[in-house]
Amino acid sequence: MKILSVVGARPQFIKLAPVAAELTAQGHEHVIVHTGQHYDANMSDVFFQDLQIPAPDVHLGVGSGSHGKQTGAMLAQMDDVFLEHQPDWVLVYGDTNSTVAGALSAVKLHLPLAHLEAGLRSFNRRMPEEHNRVLTDHAADLCLAPTQVAVEHLAAEGLDKRTVLVGDVMTDVCLMVAAQASPPASVPDGDFALATIHRAENTDDPVRLRAVIDGLATLPLPVVLTAHPRLVAKAAEHGIELSRGSISVIDPLDYPSMVGAVRRASAVVTDSGGLQKEAFLLRTPCTTVRTETEWVETIDLGWNALALDLADLPRLVTRPQPRDTSATPYGDGHAAQATVKALTESRSSSPER
Ligand code: UD1
Is 198 assigned a catalytic role? Predict the structure, then answer.
């Protein structure tokens, strides 16, 4: 079987790692296409190195731009790549512009399309990620769902016959890396909150961004803010100082350092999807700076709380440790195996295209 994976943004490299390893272990041919959506070395290259992902076979080098320009630049190049490689499956990951571009290209060329991390919904249509997910799920021949809740969302949209529950590949990577990870020198020895902010809904409106940074700056413990390039760019554009009050800014961390830092932190404050789950897996209480989350299991189990009102941040971030749990809503660390099995079995029962 020949699989062509399309990736482009940081969380997709993490998801790609266990899938690439499993495809190779099972002797399948794997072509990796990197769109170039993320291009800084610390947003891209370090993940390939640390997670031992083979170098991309094709790099589209699209870089940054408005949604239409960025997605369009990917689309313009993808046809030739897909036609040259003629894969049995195009595999797209998550919910970024790289995901939807890969999906559109595949369906237009009648190539079988599989979506890993299908069925997540925030039900917030203002999020670019929500459009990307819904469009990709409905284009896909195979929806690879990470959780039972995702399976139910797909069923509610009439996609149950194309859906397979495989678990969450981020659990595979997180548990594997956690065994050896240690915190980086850039985090303090005592109590601290590890923070990341990058979502468009928190960064693009200057009033909102200032309020979020003010909230972090006044927390009653040191806050280590790993600054995503979007945050740095938007803060500079709006004249908002990031390094003040409780906040120390550090560069984005490589994956093993991030896992080590999450485990060492007393609290995580974030608007990232992946980090909410990593905090849960590593049992660090998380506070999510959003009005909703796709990862509702983390809330139900008490390990995550939504900061619906920024005034609640100090209370939420210093809340007592939640009750421990043995629940495994994100699988047992074997989602990549289940993914490759689903691809193999669905291919032999031949999708419609
Ligand atoms: C993208 C995804 C988001 C995901 C995030 C993970 C979409 C719509 N959003 O958001 O779902 O959670 O990746 O990080 O696809 N930049 C750099 N260097 C880089 C990459 C970005 O400087 O290597 C800067 C540029 O100023 C760019 C901005 O960050 O304009 C935003 O990057 P972009 O790829 O458009 O979206 P993200 O915010 O990273």
Answer: yes
Q: Is 251 in the pocket of ligand 1 (CB under 6 A)?
A: no
Task: Select from 7, 37, 202 the residue to mutate for testing ligand 1; criterion: most ligand atoms less than 8 Å from CB.
Answer: 37
Residue 83 lies in a domain: yes
Q: In terms of pTM, does the model score above 0.90? A: yes
Nearest CA to ligand 1 atom 36: 230
Structural domain of 46: 2-168+332-349
pLDDT per residue of the chain (353 residues) written in tens, 0 to 9: 999 999 999 999 999 999 999 999 999 999 999 999 999 999 999 999 999 999 999 999 999 999 999 999 999 999 999 999 999 999 999 999 999 999 999 999 999 999 999 999 999 999 999 999 999 999 999 999 999 999 999 999 999 999 999 999 999 999 999 989 999 999 999 999 999 999 999 999 999 999 999 999 999 999 999 999 999 999 999 999 999 999 999 999 999 999 999 999 999 999 999 999 999 999 999 999 999 999 999 999 999 999 999 999 999 999 999 999 999 999 999 999 999 999 999 987 755 55
- Regarding the beta carbon of 130 and ligand 1, being less than 6 Å apart is answered no
End-to-end CA distance of the chain: 16
Residue 219: count other Cβ atoms within 10 Å of its Cβ: 22
151 in helix, strand or coil? helix
C-alpha dist (Å) from residue 135 to 8, 104, 117, 131, 235: 18, 9, 13, 6, 31
Q: Are residues 76 and 222 in the same domain?
A: no
Of 115, 198, 238, 334, the active-site residue reads 198
Q: Which residue is closest in CA terms to ligand 1's atom 18?
A: 40
Phi, psi angle pair for 33, to nearest 5°? -110, 120
**Amino acid making up residue 248:** S
For residue 277, give the amino acid letter.
K
Does ligand 1 lie within 6 Å of residue 34's CB atom?
no
Any idea what the CATH number is for the domain that residue 56 is in? Answer: 3.40.50.2000
* Ligand 1 atom 33 nearest Cα: 64
